[in-house]
Specification:
6% helix; single chain; mainly beta
Length: 413
């Protein structure tokens, strides 16, 4: 026979539920300090863009024909004007570290991209993988394993001087990834980062595993990407309070071999930066990885340009296949007064298509912007950007220019 009636059982259950939050809090407090407590962080990057996009108006093969002179063209629509809200750099993540044996520290990061404007991305997903890794750190440096930006992509910053040589990073159409290759975040990365040496020197070396099986360049010649570190990326950077220099080289990363050199100097309220890059198709691959377009609007399917892939407009085929590319970026920022900063950036790239019948493609970029600093973690901004692309006259004698004007909000938490 029970010594409790049903009412007392219900009251006990309710009391237990009230105590549950306290119990969980006590559990966290009593957990070993070495277990580490994760930090939630994130970023919201939003822009409202007015786009003026162009593509070639291809001629018919004959006056009464239904096909076009340019291979792959399916229409003659020349412009696409649209307004769009974009969320190109928004993210949320958890990171932390905790002490382990032998004076080592275990660290981790789990970071996902979020689409603040739509809720889901083009694939219908709420989250997209960004940098996700775990690793170990000591006086000798650190090693991480996972998915991570390559040293070539991150050569523009280090642990001493947190800068960003791309003054319009993440901005639709203005980000350097619109016209330069090399902005890669590969899987299967094992990366070593040195401690800070000589007051500002840092070295990063990444070994990237292709994990390929049975992939062929031709039927008779398989790719030799089955060994350790089939892709490699190395950067050497040195930063001080008023200047920064760096160089990076990578091979067989997104089927690319590339060299990038960067520099930045601060003169009073003015900051000047420069990036130079040369890249070529990796010898065992028949095409190079694509550009990053950053455009979230629904792309047009008329003509060879499908969205904003600059090269595919010119090389006679879909995609972004090419053999070589040389390019540069020059920029400046000026802290005018108080929270106001003016920014300007020009960039250019010259790309050789894989189709030997066509000449190089030239892309010229311009971006002008104004920032208003709300706090150390938040800013309002506006900018204008344009990218002009011009290729072989056998395809078209006209250049195309894509433009946007935007206002935006960028804040971290």
């Amino acid at each position: 026979m029970s010594f409790q009636d049903k009412g007392s059982v219900k009251r006990s259950a309710k009391f237990a539920l009230k105590l549950l939050p306290l119990a969980l809090t006590a559990a966290f407090i009593s957990a070993p300090a070495s277990a580490g407590f994760p930090t939630l962080y994130g970023k919201v990057y939003l822009t409202a863009n007015q786009y003026d996009l162009e593509k070639n108006n291809f001629a018919l093969t004959a006056p009464t024909a239904t096909t076009y002179k340019h291979i792959g063209a399916t229409g003659t629509t020349a412009e696409l004007d649209t307004s769009a809200v974009e969320s190109t750099g928004s993210r949320i993540g958890i990171q932390g570290d905790f002490g382990a044996a032998n004076d080592l520290t275990i660290f981790y990061r789990v970071e996902y991209g979020i689409d603040v404007d739509n809720g889901t991305n083009a694939n219908g997903r709420e989250l997209t993988q960004r940098n996700i890794f775990g690793g170990v750190r000591g006086a000798w440096g650190q090693v991480l394993v996972g998915k991570n930006d390559t040293p070539l992509k991150t050569v523009q910053t280090n642990s001493v001087l947190r800068t960003d040589l791309d003054q319009f990073n993440d901005a639709p159409l203005a980000d350097l990834g619109t016209y330069l290759v090399g902005e890669n975040r590969p899987d299967n990365v094992i990366q070593y980062t040195s401690p800070i040496l000589l007051g500002g020197l840092e070295i990063n070396l990444a070994a990237i595993q292709a994990e390929e099986t049975g992939v062929y360049e031709t039927a008779a010649k398989p790719q030799n990407d089955s060994n350790f570190a089939s892709g490699k990326s190395l950067s050497v950077v040195y930063g001080k309070a008023k200047w920064y220099v760096g160089a990076a080289y990578e091979t067989n990363v997104a089927t690319t071999d590339a060299f990038r050199a960067v520099g930045e100097v601060t003169l009073g309220t003015v900051k000047l930066g420069a990036i130079y890059q040369t890249a070529e198709r990796h010898e065992a691959i028949d095409s190079l990885g694509g550009f990053s377009t950053f455009i979230g609007t629904t792309p047009t399917t008329l003509g060879a340009q499908n969205g904003l892939t600059l090269l595919s407009e010119w090389d006679g085929a879909s995609g972004n296949a090419f053999k070589e590319q040389d390019g540069y970026v020059l920029n400046a920022s000026w802290k005018v007064a108080g929270p106001w900063t003016l920014k300007a950036q020009v960039g250019s790239s010259s790309t050789t298509p894989t189709n030997a019948a066509y000449d190089d493609v030239k892309a010229d970029a311009l971006a002008l912007g104004v920032d208003y600093k709300l706090s150390d973690a938040a800013r309002l901004f506006t900018y204008y950007a344009s990218v002009k692309a011009e290729g072989d006259a056998k395809i078209s004698t006209e250049a195309t220019t894509d433009k946007t004007f935007a206002v935006g909000l960028d804040f971290k938490f």
